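Field reference: sequence -> structure
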Amino acid sequence: MQIPSNEIIPLIGWVSAIFLIAPLFLIVYVSVYNSRKKKHQEETERMRHAFRTELMQTQMEVQEQTLKTIGNDLHDNINQLLGLMTITLSAVDLSDKDKAAEKIAAAEALARRSIREIRALSRLMHGEELVGKGLPHAIAFELDWLEKSGRYQIHRTGNLTGMPKHPETELFVFRIFQETLHNIIRHANATSVTVEQSWQDQTLTLRLIDDGAGFDVEAALAQPSGMGLQNIRKRAAMIGGAAVIRSVPGKGSSVTITVPRLNPNHAT
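Structure field:
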């Protein structure tokens, strides 16, 4: 079948246009793709940098909090033990052998207790080493110290049996735990703290509940300092998790931290 001559020129025009537009479209597509790829790489690198910066800050804050804990324990506990030991020894009357032996034995017991406390503090001095032994160990150590103060009843439920090790993520979670615990100490006026832990369906859940004064969550978040609540949320988000904060004035508060899959590379 012969194409009429009056249709050949338009046909040639359409074919030429297609051959011109196709490479142009391909060039535009490749250009857009490369631009998006570059933007994605820049965003990924920005997130990696933010994650590394936040990780370093978290490590420094854990160390700082560890030193504060040591300072408090030296002042409130070991200093008191050594003071009692000094008073006991100064009251020894060598002329009364029975009472002298009793007081010396009491002083010896105080000295041994001081040594145990100092050994515990020496372990606590290495905040990262504490977390390096596992998140459950670090949480237990912190709660033991708090319970030893005698100011709070500590209740623990659940466990993290079977949870895989992810040191960077565990450091973040431990810092959030510390931040929440110290908010309770500073602001809650509580007498009881409950810590619930679970590792189920590849998800870590850590909940801290206190029976303190409570507060208005929205009002607290609106304040510049926000009691560190924004920081708690931000850090949970950086490791792919979430922190849900609930409180009612006069009825205590709770902070629930959930981290699915314990993915420390959420930002990387």
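Note: Residues 131 and 138 are 5 Å apart (CA to CA).
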